[in-house]
Amino acid sequence: LMIKREPDLTILIDMDPDEGLKRALGRKGHEERFEDFGPDLQRRMRAGFLALADEFPTRFRVIDGGRSIKAVAQDVTDVVLRDLA
Fold first, then answer.
1. Which residues are CB-contacts of 56 (< 8 A; sequence separation ≥ 6)?
2. Are 24 and 42 in contact (CB under 8 A)?
3. What backbone phi and psi angles, to 5 degrees, belong to 13?
4. Strands 10-14 vs 60-64: parallel, antiparallel or unpaired
5. Could you write out the DSSP letters of every residue in 16-61?
6. How far apart are CA 38 and CA 44, in angstroms?
7. pLDDT tens-digit map of 1-12
8. Which residue among 31, 39, 41, 84 is least enclosed by CB atoms within 10 Å?
9. Which tens digit of pLDDT belongs to each residue from 23-62?
10. Where are the domains positioned within the chain?
């Protein structure tokens, strides 16, 4: 890493890139975002993040982001409480 220190925990909220793009584009806002570069970039970025999760399995937790906000939030809470307690 550039800062020569790795995080204790990295949470990756993963979802189908097409669904993620659809959700992101539905949000209001005018700043330039990764979503503006289309689905191919989304797929490449997802593959890169999943590769990082495979490379660093002791600190990455992958959560299914295709579910309800409540379910995802509960999983994030559970992971943080379990892994950082």
1. 6, 10
2. no
3. -90, 105
4. parallel
5. -HHHHHHHHHTS---S--GGGG-HHHHHHHHHHHHHHHHH-TTTEE
6. 11
7. 567 788 999 999
8. 31
9. 777 776 665 666 667 788 889 999 999 999 999 999 999 9
10. 10-84
Which residues, 6+ apart, have CB-to-CB distance to 58 below 8 Å? none
d(CA 21, CA 30): 15
Amino acid occupying residue 30: H
Q: How many residues does the chain have?
A: 85
Beta bridge partners of 11: 61
Q: 37-74 as b/e, with b when 16 or more CB fall inside 10 Å?
A: eeeeebeeebeebeeebeeeeeebbbbebeeeeeebee
